[in-house]
Design a protein that fits this description.
This protein has a domain of 88 residues: T-fold (Orthogonal Bundle). Helices cover 30% and strands 26% of the residues. The protein contains nine helices and 19 strands. Helix 2 packs antiparallel against helix 7 and helix 4 runs parallel beside helix 8.
Length: 356
């Protein structure tokens, strides 16, 4: 999970508009900040704009435009809205082209390319598996499926069974295939918020949905944005500790982990919401969380899931091969302590300092 150092000011506002001021060093006043929160995709979102020239009417218009933008993302890609384009595609028969909107097409193309690059560690067709394990829209009951049920569900997944045509027509070639874009949709939503704000000439920005954060320009102290990476303790809450603080500008951060949404089975296995498409079961390794820094939120969001599935060894090798991102791995040790391991570019991109 990613938190910025000013986020406690915005907590509990519940979509109310506020202007925040905090003290700067040497007695200088912080630059004015316009900030608000709301709800989307089952999570809180936050917008912060460092700008003293916006009028109340302009801010109201921006807030309305952001809300409409996020409603449209949900209309296209939500698993929880039965009338969304994604939900209707999931109910559609196989081998029948299904026309989708431009943003849905954009995200699907990205997801399929990431699936190819990660050799299937990322897979946007896991809707049936996610529901089977109780992490989806159809049930909140976590159960361990029997082997026969798991095999049957595995027959309904696979990114290679999903194609998208030049005109934005989506087709599945097996029955029962169901998409779930939860591993990239929040990141895309953040990017769309940033796009809206930039279209109005705004430059110093913070936007987030849950743990997906993207920042531009500078913070209220006219320096890079300071963002905290949380210690991956079970069911982390606001007063729990931070693992480290990062300093970034014109970048995005995303964290994936097994410490928020999980259950423990009868044999003591931790079973989280991130499922390995290659095995059909939640990932099983000692990686508690991975934080990705990347150029935009959809990229960081998708990469954090992919790297978490790959695990600490294969994930490190894969992220080191990429020029557009870096990673901080937090590993769970046998004595229940945590160990941080950063990829070679992470320190340069974020100002990260390893713990003593």
């Amino acid at each position: 999970m990613i938190l910025d150092r000013f986020s406690r000011i915005a907590r509990g506002i519940a979509a109310a508009l506020v202007v925040t001021h905090t003290s700067r060093p040497c007695g200088a006043a912080d630059l004015p900040v316009v900030a608000w929160q709301g709800r989307t995709m089952g999570s809180d979102y936050t917008v912060k704009i460092v700008d003293g020239k916006l009028t109340e009417q302009q801010v109201t218009a921006l807030k309305t435009e952001i809300e409409k933008t996020l409603v449209e993302v949900n209309r296209q890609m939500s698993n929880y809205q039965p009338d969304s384009e994604l939900s209707r595609f999931n109910r559609a028969p196989e081998k029948t082209p299904f026309k989708i909107s431009a943003d849905f097409s954009r995200v699907t193309r990205f997801a399929l390319e990431l699936s190819r690059q990660s050799d299937g560690a990322f897979d946007p067709t896991l809707g049936s598996l996610i529901n089977l394990w109780g992490f989806g829209e159809k049930t909140g009951e976590h159960t361990v499926p029997d082997a026969a049920t798991l095999r049957g569900t595995m027959d309904k997944i696979g990114w290679k069974h999903l194609t998208i045509g030049e005109n934005g027509e989506l087709t599945k070639d097996i029955p029962g295939l169901a998409m779930d874009l939860g591993a990239v949709a929040k990141g895309f939503g953040v990017d769309r918020m940033i796009e809206v704000l930039r279209s109005h000439g705004l430059e110093n920005l913070y936007a987030s949905i849950a743990g997906e954060v993207r920042v531009l320009g500078h913070n209220p102290r006219a320096t890079k944005w300071m963002l905290g990476v949380t210690v991956p303790v079970d069911h982390w809450r606001e007063n729990n500790p931070m693992a480290t603080m990062l300093s970034i500008s014109n970048q995005a951060l995303s964290t994936s982990g097994d410490y928020q949404k999980f259950f423990v089975d009868a044999s003591g296995r931790r079973l989280c919401h991130i499922i390995d498409a290659r095995t059909g079961i939640p990932v099983q390794h000692n990686l508690a969380s991975v934080t990705i820094v990347g150029p935009d939120s959809m990229t960081a969001d998708g990469l954090s899931t992919s790297v978490f599935v790959l695990g600490p060894d294969a994930g490190m090798k894969w992220i080191e091969s990429r020029e557009d991102a870096a990673a901080l791995f937090i590993l769970r040790e046998k004595d229940a302590s945590f160990r941080q391991v950063a990829s070679s570019k992470f320190e340069k991109l974020t100002g990260y300092r390893p713990p003593p």
